[in-house]
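User: Before I run my own analysis I want an independent prediction to cross-check against. Here's the chain; please return only the structure tokens and, at the end, one sentence I can use as a sanity check.
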Amino acid sequence: MLVYIETFGCKVNAYESNYIKQSLLASGFLLASSYKEADIVIVNTCTVTNTADSKCKKYVRRIKRENPNCLLVVAGCSVQNNKEDYSKMDIDILIGNRYKSKIPELINNYLETKEKYCFVDNNRDLNFENMEIETFNHTRAFIKIQDGCDNFCSYCIIPFMRGKCRSKNFDDVIKEAKKLSLNHQEIVLTGIHTGSYNDNGKDLVDVINAISEIPEIKRIRLSSVEITELNDKFMMMLKNNSKFCNHLHIPMQAGSNHVLSLMNRKYDVDYFFKKIAEIRNIRPDIAISTDIIVGFPEENDQDFLDTYENAQKLKFSKIHVFPYSKRNGTKASLMKEVSSKEKTNRAHKLLELSNILEKEYNDSFKGKTLDILVEEVKDGKSIGHSSNYIRVEVNKELEKNKIYNIVYK
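Assistant: Structure tokens:
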């Protein structure tokens, strides 16, 4: 039977979908090239914003309309957050975030019994749901080492959708990295709150250092890390571990102390600046990207100006800009909202700044030699990213999944 998997949202979802695909292929299923020709369609959903929810629901309705006879499986955060909406869509297998690893088993059960299945558990007190992959569908391989979040930022629904912080067994992480090293030279460690990793006293730095001892692994990257988790032990690793990529993604979310307080973030602007200075003292040319929410409730003109100016001073290599999206059930949903027009204006201004900062950062490496992991080869060209996440295109066909020293032009 032909299976098609569509994934919305974060790297954790991408990892989970990869595991589901691997399990189904091992059971004799084949991959379809589109949902229209598939016997089974699996949708792994996201609910981080209203837009994400809307896209997921629209996609599911399209499948019901264009491939009504397929076995339809819908799972993930959007289901967790909108069970009633999805329950009205006549979906064959409907689950939240718990038991995603059992999707292949649920599919086989459905094929035998033709009985619909629905399970959405709102319990936050969950164990880590272990999955293990042997190869990944990108050149960079993801390993999900952590799940859940206990931060409860006032705007974020994810702690309610993903449950409490929990971590993958340390030995299992290293075993998985060794398997992935047979086909991948770069590992990306990911989770909902990756920096909170803890397994019997082993923390994120212990994971990074242990994986760096695998000879075939040339690069280790983090999907994201909070500024408050960059302790002395992490800084020492940053100084001494040459396999750790020259790039960090550190969400700032706002550059105004007033807004950071409303967001229930665990730092202020001064703390953020000091940590970034500490990082750049160790690695002066490191790429630091960030996330910023604009138009947060009660954010005034001065708050946004502070955010803009501080982002400018911090010289991020890229800013991922998110207009505030109200999530019912969060503290921010009870606050006074900024107008849609103002949110849009502020988003445009910050995106313009991001483009300027990204060009400045990238241009500073022109004429310098960068190590490029080749991810795509086509039409006589090779495309890949450097350790500091600069996209490089070369006018020759190189070997995919290999690292080359290339002069950046």
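Sanity check: The chain has four domains: 2-119, 125-245, 248-364, 369-407.
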